[in-house]
Write a structure and sequence with these properties.
Length: 790
């Protein structure tokens, strides 16, 4: 008869089983753990005596013991006090000669000890980061980089760990600054870019690391730093969009409730329903939480002027730079310098003369240089600096002998430059370029029309009278357009739709302080009894009113201005009353006795161009400026009404009579907003040149399928040539819906329905009435067989 083997006798050879039992009852299995830990100590000492000659059996035994002890080390903290240091020293001293499986197990064990709070994050990162920078093993570098990124994200998941972030940022910055010519700084660039993408690091210190990388002396490090400034913010937005899309892909509550009411009720379906409900609640809480304010990397630079000058002088201007960059890398640096100059409106005069040698159609990536030049232009750049560049582009690109793509790219480049600095164009060149709108090529024609539309808005006086257009001419005659622009002039901003709110208040007679106080009545502010929550605290004065003003002079000016407005209104009212009385008294008189109009009296009725003078235009502009925002504080009720008035104005503008004007205004607004902050790409320069190419059969097939042909970038539904049914089907599939029951029931072959479809259009009204009547009777009867109720 066989003897039963006890469970404790099997434990010695079964480490996973012992691990499970120790986690269940650490006290009862302490002796077994001590024996295994002593075995680990002996194997570890034997390995240290000869790390390279240890056989496979010893490596496997050491790997299993390390894995076992790391899982249960938190149960016996006093016994395993030296265990983390043993792993750290083993990894630091022998990482180059260790077996790959054992090395990966040691790294994983250190991460596990960090999760159990046996070691802190600084200890783990100070161990892994030097190995990441120095090890020659590609697989180990990939593993260490993944663990470092995961540890940084986990440490900042609940709250921001400022101490750890400062320590790691200082380490990355010192890695680049200590040796600018070393390629090791690439790991600091990769880590910073990944944490910026995941919104773990979003402060100016991370930007300082990438600034140092862009000014280093290694080509790869420089390219990584420059690419961060050009595309890091877009990567962050795409990552956030992907996370939101993944959340939206979850099963909806309505679909789960529908399935739960129809299908058989099981525990799994009940769990899915509860998980979906929890997901919906989590989304609602996420919507209510305040959104983090993330600034772009280019906005967080401490010294944009100095950074742009160093980039230009170190990588572009010298004939023999310290770091050799190819044409593509130089173009990246040039794009960054141009973005800095255009965004912060910097003054870097040598940059514009640098473009001269690249503005030729034979230059590779010439559209990129044109886009960079346009991006580096703003309204504070002297027109004398831009005039040679515009002339060079016009002479090299825009001519009768040039190809259509070249002419279109040149016209687009000039238009982008002049949109930012209209004074860079002269009358003669503008009138010559506008004539290309009569070109037979579609791309050149559209580019010239874009130039004409631009200067109808910003410099109509430079165009010929026949090129100004009807609307522009009427605006100039009425004095609604500004006169000749001056260098350095900056237009003031305002609140969109504020004049609508002011007009509505005048119509409703809401001008007093009582109406302003009523606007605050329905505003419910969250309050708390304690005043230490950082909220608003009501401070009352002791019987005296507090008048907040910048100075006595401003108060006097405001009072004088208010008195002038009231006097003007009173004078206008007296004038209207006088005119009405004169008209009443002169009515019975004969027309022959009426006095003849003098030239002075007839002068205001004559058509004149005096309104185009600067003084008259300034007075007219001052009359149109709304004083609502400068004389009172807008209440929440005012803001709600302003939103409603904007929506009504939008609906009014959507009427067919105003549709064309609305589209033109939207295009102009989009262009002005894009020129303010967004980057200009080579696609913007060469975009209209695609109109010159005729679509091939393959391109037409791809367009019909809803795809874009190769070589054409961009997006949008403007070129979606699919049928309405195909687009509806795709939309339903994206929403997780299927076809309707009526559509599923239509199984008859389409060719069998053609004959009936042709006859339907030729039926007489009497025949159609008879068919409908028979159909109703048949439906009441229960169909052709009349089996209703059987």
């Amino acid at each position: 008869m066989k003897r039963k083997v006890g469970a404790l006798e099997k434990v010695d050879a079964d480490l996973p089983n012992l691990q499970h039992k120790i986690k269940s009852d650490p006290t009862s299995y302490k002796d077994d753990f001590v024996s295994q830990y002593s075995l680990y100590s002996s194997v570890h000492e034997l390995f240290l005596t000869s790390p390279t000659t240890t056989d496979d059996t010893g490596l496997v035994r050491l790997r299993d013991l390390v894995d076992f002890i790391s899982h249960v080390a938190d149960c016996y903290p006093q016994i395993t006090a030296k265990f983390p240091q043993d792993l750290i020293s083993l990894l630091q001293q022998h990482h180059a000669s260790l077996d790959s499986e054992l090395r990966d197990k040691i790294v994983g064990s250190l991460v596990l000890l960090r999760k159990k709070d046996i070691i802190d994050s600084n200890t783990l990162l100070n161990t892994l980061w030097p190995l990441l920078v120095s090890t020659p093993s590609k697989s180990l570098r990939a593993l260490l980089y993944q663990k470092v990124v995961s540890e940084m994200r986990n440490s900042n998941s609940k709250t921001t760990n400022h101490k750890l972030n400062r320590s790691m940022q200082a380490t990355c910055y010192n890695l680049i600054a200590s040796d600018p010519a070393s390629p090791k700084g690439l790991w600091a660039v990769k880590l910073t870019r990944e944490l910026w993408k995941r919104q773990v690091w979003a402060d100016s210190k991370a930007v300082s690391i990438m600034e140092a990388a862009a000014l280093s002396q290694d080509a790869k490090v420089v390219t990584g730093g420059v690419r961060f400034f050009l595309g890091g913010d877009q990567e962050r937005e795409d990552a956030a969009d992907d996370e939101s899309d993944q959340e939206e892909k979850n099963i909806s509550m309505g679909k789960l409730r529908h399935q739960a009411g129809i299908n058989k009720k099981t525990a799994k379906r009940d769990r899915d329903l509860k998980a979906a409900a929890a997901n919906v609640k989590r989304k609602e809480r996420k919507k209510s939480t305040p959104h983090a304010l993330n600034f772009g990397a280019l906005h967080l630079l401490n010294d944009p002027q100095g950074f742009a000058e160093k980039l230009f002088q170190q990588h572009l201007q010298p004939s023999q730079p310290k770091v050799k960059l190819n044409l593509e890398q130089k173009l990246f640096v040039l794009q960054l310098v141009s973005r800095l100059v255009g965004l912060h409106k910097l003054t870097l005069i040598p940059l514009y003369s640098y473009f001269i040698k690249f503005l030729t159609p034979r230059q590779p990536s010439v559209t990129g240089f044109l886009a960079s030049l346009a991006q580096a232009t703003h309204n504070l750049v002297p027109p004398d600096v831009l005039d040679p560049l515009v002339q060079k582009i016009a002479n090299e690109f825009v001519s009768e002998a040039a190809a259509s793509e070249v002419a279109s790219a040149g016209l687009n480049g000039i238009r982008e430059i002049c949109a930012r600095q209209p004074l860079a164009m002269n009358d003669t060149l503008l009138q010559d370029l506008v004539q290309y709108r009569k070109s037979k090529d579609k791309g050149v024609q559209m580019a010239a029309r874009g130039m004409l539309s631009l200067y109808r808005e910003v410099g109509a006086e430079m165009l010929r009278k026949r090129d100004r257009g009807k609307d522009t001419t009427l605006k100039m005659r009425a004095g609604e357009m500004a006169g000749a622009r001056r260098f350095g002039h900056v237009e003031g901003g305002g609140i969109e739709g504020l004049e609508l709110l002011e007009k509505w208040k005048e119509e409703q007679g809401m001008e007093g302080s009582e109406d302003e106080e009523a606007g605050w009545n329905n505003w419910d502010a969250q309050s708390d009894d304690s005043e230490s929550d950082g909220g608003w605290v009501n401070v009352e004065s002791e019987g005296e009113e507090i008048d907040i003003s910048d100075s006595e002079d401003e108060r006097e000016k405001a009072a004088a201005k208010k008195g002038k407005i009231e006097a003007r209104k009173a004078k206008q009212a007296d004038k209207e009353n006088t005119d009405t009385a004169d008209a009443t008294n002169d009515a019975p008189k004969d027309n022959a006795d009426a006095p003849k109009a003098t030239p002075e009296a007839a002068a205001p009725t004559e058509r004149t161009t005096a309104s185009l003078e600067p003084a008259a235009a300034l007075k007219r502009e001052e009359a149109h400026i709304s004083t609502l925002a400068t004389t009172r504080i807008l209440t929440p009720a005012d803001l709600l009404k302003l939103q409603e008035l904007r929506a009504n104005a939008t609906l009014t503008a959507a009427l067919p009579s105003a549709k064309r004007r609305k589209l033109a205004a939207q295009a102009q607004a989009a262009a002005s907003s894009r020129h303010a902050d967004d980057a200009v790409t080579a696609i913007d320069i060469e975009g209209l040149a695609l109109l010159s190419h005729k679509a091939t059969r393959e391109d037409k097939i791809l367009l019909a399928k809803g795809q874009r042909p190769e070589g054409r970038d961009g997006g949008g539904d403007g070129n979606d040539h699919r049928s309405t049914t195909a687009r509806r089907k795709e939309r339903k599939e994206a929403e997780g819906k299927s076809t309707t029951n009526r559509e599923k029931a239509r199984k008859k072959n389409f060719l069998m329905t053609l004959g009936k479809a042709k006859k339907k259009g030729k039926r007489k009204l009497s025949v159609q009435r008879g068919i409908l009547k028979a159909h109703n009777e048949r439906s009441k009867r229960g169909g052709k067989r009349g089996n209703k109720g059987q």
